[in-house]
Design brief:
The complex is a heterodimer of chains A (265) and B (443). With 265 residues, chain A is an alpha/beta fold. Chain A has eleven helices and ten strands. Helices cover 38% and strands 25% of the residues of chain A. In chain A, helix 8 links the parallel strand 7 and strand 8. The chains are: A alpha/beta (265), B mainly alpha (443).
């Protein structure tokens, strides 16, 4: 519980990066997300917690329009990134996803070399003019992913040959290589062992200095450790949203309290 | 916990030693043993039939790769040529010159048999014409000794291969008993020999009464041009259709209908495609009859469903996490498909394509309907483009034609043709395996 107090001290108010109002998501006839209002702050780690199937991953996938790839999914409401509606007809999801990067639950490096994994995003977005610039971006991203020292001698080795924790940090490096402003993480540690989890969590804390990070997690301890803001989802509703310390020590809603004390979920 | 483990469990069972198998376990073990035995028996049966098949194909087909040749050293002088060209029956004059050369060779070896023109014609066909054509094509060879390797007629070939024997044969215009004396004498003199049958591999189809001259080469070329058409059309169309259906098309009734129809098309009998090709490509579009182009188009229709189904299966097998990863870094859908999904699906697509091609290579029925029958393969096409449009046959149709002919000499040609067809199919499968190995990526 000492951790908690430390986290609490670090909370400071930042400007709002992503403003979500009256968000609804339907999968066919199922109403998966109901009236969710969340403000994601810049340079802050926001955690989404809640029992399985509560809609937290669905909501996360709305933030970079990954739900567009699901035919039956329908998203309503207003999502404003720096004041611009990301669901505007003129917005190309491809450009949006370069600004809002994503890390997935299962480490999913491309079956290519470590270098190509990281260089892929900058290449398709044309971020590097030449090989030297690309090399620089790859190195910088791998350093930010806290994996540079482990892989700098074998950039040509396949990314799939790394251990699970290394693969996940490689995926984070790949996500930051396109210079995103928001980084979405969908249970990034659920497939990792405690040591790899600790490394990724440490990394998330470092990433906070430059990005706005949104993390979905099943582990309440993890949410408490890494986040400054926490949103608790239950059955598609946003039950409670506030500063992490307050949510875990003094929840307002009885459902939040039941969940964090282990009585539901 | 300790209390519970101390108590005797009240399961009602007697304590049985682990080393003594009970009846139920024995029963299960026996069932497993029986199942293994069935499996081994099934595989053994399959292997047995495979061995029988291959032995019969090889034993029947290998003689087709040998031929009987009558080789004679023959010299034509300028004077002889002028004289022969002056005669009324020119080929008869050449024929007489050849017989004289043959006789003198026999005499040299002290063999004395009757050699008459009719017998030589039965043994070698119209030899005078062959010689005359040779010298008009190669006038510079006049005056030099030339070694002629002339293919013996199919009955003589059959005599050496055991198809024809003195006891069973009847005199006919093809061969008489007295000719066999001449053949024996020629063999003793070393003039009749067995040689590798290159003309069978490189040659074209012959007339119905000349099995000795029949070759599969022209129809191999026909098959090759057909496969070019099939590959050139069905691979891009099939892959594009599958990528669209699998990755881009919305899921609705219309696409469901298309999917069901593609699956159904794969099961349509090939002869139906043949009659479709006849009606659409030849009668409606007036494409040339018997041409590999039309054959290729028909086989494309047949191969497309196979390629689409296998391509979609291999696209489906690519884990969705790869698509998510690509979309997550901001790749467009097309980039995700072409940079990541397609390379991973490539081994499966290639295998499916080659299996589809192999199937098309062995297809006979539709070709018969569009007139790519064996006997049109009488010569090689002149040039690459003509290869698509000139009448030709294909290997399986050629084999079918030979098998249907009356002369027993064609029987071994049909088996020999099957060996060549199988060689092509096996090499295609090997290529498929090599490609799959090379492109396969692990994760």
């Amino acid at each position: 519980m000492n951790d908690m107090s430390r986290v609490e001290r670090e909370v400071d108010t930042n400007e709002i990066k992503l403003e979500c109002r009256d968000c609804q998501v339907y999968y066919g006839d199922t109403h998966a997300i109901k009236d969710v209002n969340v403000d994601i702050e810049d340079k802050t780690v926001t955690a989404f917690i809640g029992p399985s199937g509560c809609g937290k991953s669905t909501f996360l996938r709305c933030l970079n329009r990954m739900n567009d790839t699901i035919d039956v999914a329908r998203v309503e409401g207003s999502f404003r990134l720096d004041g611009e509606d990301i669901y505007d007809k003129r917005v190309d999801p491809v450009q949006l996803r370069a600004k809002v990067g994503m890390v997935f639950q299962k480490p999913n490096p491309f079956p290519k070399s470590i270098y190509d994994n990281v260089a892929y995003g900058p290449r398709i977005h044309g971020l590097a003019k030449n090989k030297a610039e690309l090399d620089e971006i790859v190195e910088k991203s791998l350093r930010r992913g806290a994996i540079w020292n482990e892989v700098k001698d074998r950039l040509d080795a396949p990314g799939t040959g790394l251990s699970g924790g290394q693969q996940q940090r490689l995926c984070i490096a790949r996500a930051v290589a396109t210079e995103p402003e928001v980084l979405l993480m969908d249970e990034p540690c659920s497939a990792l062992d405690p040591i790899a989890t600790a490394q990724v969590e440490e990394l998330i804390d470092e990433l906070r200095s430059q990005y706005s990070v949104v993390i979905v997690t099943h582990s309440m301890q993890q949410a408490a450790r890494v986040s400054q803001k926490t949103a608790f989802f239950h059955l598609g509703n946003l039950v409670e949203f506030g500063e992490t310390g307050q949510i875990f020590t003094n929840p307002v809603d009885p459902r939040t309290e039941s969940y964090i004390t282990g009585r539901i979920g | 916990m300790t209390d519970a483990s101390m108590q005797t469990p009240e399961t009602g069972r007697h304590s049985v030693s682990l080393t003594a198998t009970d009846a139920h376990t024995r029963k299960r073990a026996n069932a497993e043993k029986r199942f293994r035995a069935y499996g081994i028996a099934a595989i053994a049966t399959g292997l047995f039939f495979l061995v029988v098949l291959f032995t019969s194909i090889l034993s029947e087909g290998i003689p087709a790769f040998k031929r009987t040749v009558i080789s004679v050293d023959f010299t034509l002088t300028e004077a002889q040529r002028t004289e022969a060209e002056g005669e009324l029956f020119k080929t008869k004059a050449y024929s007489n010159l050849f017989i004289a050369a043959l006789k003198s060779e026999l005499d040299e070896r002290g063999l004395n048999v009757a050699v008459d023109e009719a017998a030589i014609e039965r043994l070698l066909g119209k030899v005078g014409g062959t010689i005359r054509t040779f010298y008009s094509d190669n006038p510079d060879k006049i005056g030099e000794p030339v070694a002629f390797d002339l293919t013996a007629s199919s009955r003589v070939d059959g005599y050496f291969k055991g198809r024809v024997s003195r006891d069973t044969m009847q005199d006919s215009r093809f061969l008489q008993k007295s000719d066999l004396d001449l053949v024996d004498a020629l063999e003793e003199a070393g003039i009749v020999k067995q040689a590798f049958n290159w003309p069978f591999i490189t040659g074209a189809d012959s007339g119905v009464d000349n099995p000795g001259g029949a070759g599969i080469g022209a129809s191999v070329v026909g098959s090759f041009f057909m496969m070019l058409v099939v590959l050139g059309l069905s691979l891009p169309i099939g892959v594009a259709a599958s990528i669209y259906l699998e990755e881009f098309a919305p899921q609705n009734r219309f696409t469901d209908l298309i999917e069901v129809n593609i699956s159904n098309l794969a099961a349509v009998p090939s002869i139906v495609f043949g009659i479709l090709g006849l009606a659409v490509f030849i009668q409606f579009m007036h494409l040339p009859q018997s041409a590999p182009l039309v054959g290729g188009l028909v086989l494309t229709l047949m191969t497309l469903p196979t390629i689409i189904i296998s391509t979609r299966a291999s696209l489906k097998a690519v884990p969705p996490s790869i698509r998510d990863a690509a979309l997550g870094v901001g790749a467009s859908k097309m980039q995700a498909v072409f940079h990541h999904v397609l390379p991973l699906a490539a081994p499966g697509i290639l295998t499916g394509t080659i299996i589809g091609l192999a199937q098309a290579l062995g297809e006979t029925a539709p070709l018969l309907l569009i007139g790519m029958v064996g006997f049109v393969a009488r010569g090689y096409p002149d040039g690459f483009l003509a290869g698509f449009t000139e009448p030709n046959s294909a290997m399986p149709a050629q084999i079918y034609t030979w098998a249907a002919r009356a002369d027993v000499g064609f029987y071994e040609k049909a088996w020999g043709g099957i060996i060549i067809l199988l060689i092509f199919l096996l090499s295609m499968n090997i290529i498929a395996i090599i490609l799959r190995r090379r492109f396969e990526r692990r994760w």
